[in-house]
Amino acid sequence: MIRALWTAASGMQSQQVNMDVIANNLANVNSSGFKKSRADFQDILYQTSRAAGTGGDGAEVPTGVQVGLGSRVAAVQKVFTTGDFQQTENELDLAIEGPGFFQVTLPDGTDAYTRSGALKKDSTGRLVTSDGFPVVPEIVIPEGSTSITIGSSGTIDVLMDGESTSTQVGNIELVRFSNPAGLSSLGRNLYAETPTTGTPSAGTPGEEGFGTLSQGFLEGSNVNIMEEMVNMIAGQRAYEVNSKAIKTADEMLQMTSGLVR
């Protein structure tokens, strides 16, 4: 019975992590460019009382006797499916249609990557994220520009006050990874490279393997509320069943201990 207690407890711990992941997904349902996570589980050690194939008197046992010792969380994986596009009509809002990330520079000089295209201008005219991190390569919008046009291939043209023709001031690049699921989440819709992502590859939007840009749109979260609610109910029931298994094992231990009285 002691084994049943620990086995059911491991199941409750796994479902607690599952609920934590679901809660974080639901909390970010309105976060621009947010990618949902999924908890993957696996069984753990088994105790073997009799191995398959053993036996005596010339007989061979076709199946053995193994009892599992519970479950554990194997991974919490980011799911990089595309979220719904939301039209904002803001000329600095960009959505990536297809694979790719925007590259930004953090205050410590390291690079980070994001799918959130809610860009702004800082005091010097640089294109930055909502937290003030500049886009790579650096793009400066000249003072006095009256309109900004960003093409699907990332070209940025500005129309200056008093002029009739636009001027190209830069080009937005995208970065892709061979294994984006290996990216490390930094918060603020930012991701960092890890040894499992592969070397980042930069390129022009619209080229082979890179998505295109849509000006005046933002990519919403890819969280499906109904799906998360169903997963939450299933996780809650699994947690409840494991707690009942602990209670039942405890009652059986009470019966055993009462035999000596």
Describe the structure.
There is one protein chain. The protein is an alpha+beta fold. The chain folds into two domains: about 1-50 and about 65-75 and about 225-260; about 85-220, no CATH class. The protein is about 25% helix and about 30% strand. It has two helices and 20 strands. It has helices at about 1-25, 225-260; strands at about 35-45, 45-50, 65-70, 70-80, 85, 95, 100-105, 110-115, 120, 125-130, 135, 145-150, 155-160, 165-170, 175, 185, 190, 200-205, 210-215, 215-220. The strands form nine sheets. It has a three-stranded antiparallel beta sheet, with no helix packed on it. It has a three-stranded antiparallel beta sheet with strand order 12-13-14, with no helix packed on it. A hairpin with a 6-residue loop joins strand 13 and strand 14 (about 165-170). Helix 1 (about 1-25) runs antiparallel to helix 2. It is elongated, with a radius of gyration of 27 Å. The two termini are about 20 Å apart.
Shape: elongated
Helix/strand order: HEEEEEEEEEEEEEEEEEEEEH
Helical proportion? Answer: 10-25%
Q: What share of residues are in beta strands?
A: 25-35%
The low-confidence parts are none
Roughly how many Å apart are the termini? 19 Å
Helix/sheet category: alpha+beta
Structural domain count: 2
Overall average residue pLDDT: 92
Biggest beta sheet attributes: 3 strands, antiparallel
Gyration radius, rounded: 27 Å
Quaternary structure type: single chain
Give the spatial strand order of the biggest sheet: 8-7-11
Number of helices: 2
- Extended strand count: 20
